[in-house]
Amino acid sequence: MRLGVIDYGASNIHSVARALQSLGSKVSIVDTPDKFKNIDKLVFPGQGSMGSCVKKLKETEMINPLLESIKSKPFLGICLGLQILFNSSEESKEKGLGLINGCITKIKDINKENLKIPHMGWNNVKIEKQHKLFSGIEDNQFFYFVHSFVASNTETSITTTYYGEEFVSSLATENIFATQFHPEKSGEIGLKFLENFINWKI
Amino acid sequence: MSLAVRIIPCLDVRGGRVVKGINFKDIVDAGDPAEAAKRYDAEGADEICMLDIDASFEERSTTIETVKSIASQVFIPFTVGGGIKSLKDIDMLLKSGADKVSINTSAILNPELIEEASKEYGAQCIVLAIDAKQDGEIWNVYTHGGKNKTELDAIEWAKKGQDLGAGEILMTSMDKDGTKSGFDNNLYMELSNNLSIPVIASGGAGELSHLVDAVKVGKADALLAASIFHYEEISIKKVKQALQIEGFEVRL
User: Fold this and answer.
1) How many structural domains comprise chain B?
2) Partner residue opposite B71 with nearest CB, options A15, A115, A191
3) pLDDT at A109 over 90
4) Is ipTM strictly over 0.85?
5) Domain range spanning residue A13?
6) pLDDT band at B69 (very low <50, low <70, confident <90, very high)
7) d(Cα B47, Cα B167) in Å, to the nearest integer?
8) Chain A: nearest CA to B136, how far in angstroms?
9) What CATH code is carried by the domain that includes residue A68?
10) Would you call A79 a catalytic residue per the annotation?
11) Each residue of B144-166: pLDDT tens digit?
12) CATH number for position B178
């Protein structure tokens, strides 16, 4: 089995690739349209804003093969890789991939609790719905987050996390799974989650 | 529910080896960095910090090898500092596996570096490190690993750093560093009251109560220490348990 890690040129793909490799996976970096071939599963670690990410995917002509692959292959979106699945974001004029309905919004109610933005650090992940990617992971474990925008109110939600408001910390629909947290930076539990993705059969 | 208080063991590295000094002097050898990082990860560290204490051009390749070695074995956030002078240095460290970089002297000599780096890589990966020493009512900023005194006021400089785009402030009290006599809580309290970005307190950890007080009194968001963890005087788990008893959120 070959895992493809998408590199659109503005994201730190190395830690994800290293974490997957440490679990014994064969990892290929996908940075051109032709590299989507021969890939069995895709990981999309995103960084930055939705607008610049979509723009870069268009510039590198990877957007169409990406959309094609997302239809059938097991897909894991991380951080912006979750947000980009939505229709739109308050952060950018550019539209997202539109695979999940809704708009990504800036974290609310930070003043009320004197919270800092970005939401950076370890926070609790509450399991709302069981999923194979959380097998062997207990409820309310800490995962590592770095972000300022969030998804909320989606039927696809698997876990939620509280920071100023309750937001979607991971979601799933058919072959797509996406996390707002960084499993590749969440220590042993994060590695367990990635191992579950490697073993995930749809 | 809020964010967990982060416990960050720091590896002071020179020429690919962990070292530790007292009051920035008297350096002693203390082992292999990747082995130490792995041990800290297993013990529950929330992040790993590596400071190359006298990174020079000749030693840059050693630093990169050490960073790669740690990043391929440890899967928690990893900050690297020491001798960073340009965007090119930052790029190289991030590509080698660092998640954040900590910038000290270069930020004072060239404040635009913070601004440019923050724009290029995001505020979350830029840590402004400050070495400060109390002088009457204020704290003075020192550069070059504590060797040179500047006219900068540490609180003002931290505020400026935040405005320039730093995502965190790592403040080391030179008066307290290596003394094991407790953190400079007045300094951290003053900082927390003036900043909206997280403050990492460093320098002076000797006993459990010191670490708890830096959060309770100093309002620090994260605690950084080197020797107490390195010489296993206090375990990371014990620190977290003590913080939990006081009602703080920790990742146990």
Assistant:
1) 1
2) A15
3) no
4) yes
5) 2-198
6) very high
7) 15
8) 31
9) 3.40.50.880
10) yes
11) 888 899 999 999 999 999 999 99
12) 3.20.20.70
